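Handoff note, outgoing to incoming analyst
You'll be picking up this chain. Sequence as last confirmed:
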Amino acid sequence: MTLAEDPGAGPTSGRRIILRRPPVIHVTPGPFVPEHPRIGEVDERWAAFRERVPAAFDGRVMHVIGAHRNGHGGVVMHLVETAYRFYAVQTPEYDLGVRPLGAKGVTWRDGRVFMGHRASWVAGYPDAWEFAPGGVVEPGERPATTVIRELQEETGWTAAREPLAVVLLLDARLRCWELVHRVEAGERTGEPTDEYDEVRWCAPDALPAPLTPIAATIAECFLAG
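Most recent structure output, in case you need it:
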């Protein structure tokens, strides 16, 4: 789940770190509670968010305190646990500074990539196509494990091997970081989640439209030409 879009923000704001080695992740003891002069509005705003997205669950997510390059294709991320509601209630006018870490997969099979069309009821980028799967990293979970779990839950496919992190992107519109992985599909053992109302295996040069901004950035980085 993600929060409502900020139409005034660019999709990645130029924050893009191509990875040539695994990311280094440091976890700070938490939980993190934002400091904001209107922090008392969180419960009311969360109730309103739940009315719009009844499936939303106030679980725990990992907030990115900072991310910086580590030379020769590396990145170091500092994370701390926080409540999902602090992320979900944010708007351009009510920004608590929470930027969770998401893990996304570009899933390949027989030279094609797996695409999902986001349903109209989802909170972020409804009615747009994205590379599947994707989800928020939970406390105690490696991003690659998140990808494997979400691949099974969202697409019904297993991973043939450990996903490989290839780029870290900042989605300024949805206020989250995305650690993008290359995934090789294994076997199909289930059905896609209802977060997608259509799924397709697509040739890299024939992706469906419209793409989410992050999907367009991924395609530009890795699939163009």
